[in-house]
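[09:14] KT: can someone run the structure on this one? pasting the chain below
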Amino acid sequence: MSRSKRLKRGCLVAAAALVLLSCGGCLGPVEGDRNLLQEEEPQERVVNLFSPMEKTSPNLENVARSAFDKTIALAEERVGVSVAYRTYTAEDHQDKTYDEVTMDRVRSNMDDIYVLNPDVILTLGEEGVLMDLSGLESAKNLREIIRVANTVDGKLVAIPQEVVAYGLFLNKDMFDRYGLKPPNTPEEFLDCCEVFQKNGIETPLGANRWWLEVFVLAQAYAELYNGGNTEAEIAALNSGEKKYSEYMRPGFEFLQVLIDRGYIDPEKALVSEAIEGEGPDFLAQKTPMVVAYWGAANTETAYGATEFELQVVGLPSSRGQMPVMPMTGFCVGANSEHAQDAMATLDVILSDEALQIYTDINKVIAASKNVKTNCIPALEPLNARIEEGEIVVASNASMKLEQWGNTCLVVRDLLAGATVDECMAAFDRLQEETLSK
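[09:31] RB: done, structure tokens below
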């Protein structure tokens, strides 16, 4: 169950990078007067940004990208730099993942600013290859949950533009057709799946190889984060007094039931990329439920233009519908070639002014406690739970064992045929390895 062995799988077959602008060819000294000073054009200041780029359809506006571009443009104007986009998207499950590529690039100092996923943030933060961002002016306005979740070894190593919340995306029309209500608990979810399947819907839940872990995390940590004993429970996990497998087992048993009853297609999920794998069936109303992140409900390249009423709720748990919130974030390489400009650029991107622009367009949850947003109607049920404070944090730097990435990997073992007991043994090994370091 070695994580390093998993990350060696596949090879990089596609990457996109913008060509950086540089000073054009300059005229040499005039023949016969070699004492004349050469007047060179000033070299452009470039900051290299590595981030995931959503695939877009021709002539289709990508709202999320548009909002991001506006904040970049503001930073370019204020700082006096040119931000060069570099990106990578895996073509299929055999390619290197975005996470694998970003780890290689950060360690090799290939870029300046990176958008990283939570498990990568924790890994690279522990390696000391990410800059401490706590000195940025924009860091003073962060929601406390973001500061805690992105602090590694006392350093704030990542800050997101938005708080990413995962939820259950429902075709409300299909639920209404069969007299069903959005599920609150795992039992209610299974009841909904049974009704759908009895009415000819072969796989009620569309799934991919990335996001089934949110079901596990919602069920594992609903009480831990909302029961009033969070610090003590995390301390017990970090000391080894409690095992992560004790928390994880109910969620894995739940997924096994989904597999056994045919409510998900594990073989398809194991090789499907997020949204690209399950999205077409959901949009075609062949399946009534998928898991996705908040922004997918706003983006036409994902689920922002459905032909049915879309509703987004929390994941089923013992405490009801539960938003699951990992923390992707912007980071600066500790050995960045353009560190000063990168930090200044990031400070503008994450300022309240820029975040207000970003959230007004994308209608997302801002990282700053000062920035408010109004969500679209489809997201109101999920947002209500977030406003109530009922959430599960899927990436927490105060937990010694990284959660988001490790849970995802063990869930893939389950999809590939491992038993629940084997998956729990994998968590026990991961915990032992982590605590022995």
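[09:33] KT: thanks! The two ends are 17 Å apart (CA to CA).
[09:34] RB: yep, looked fine to me
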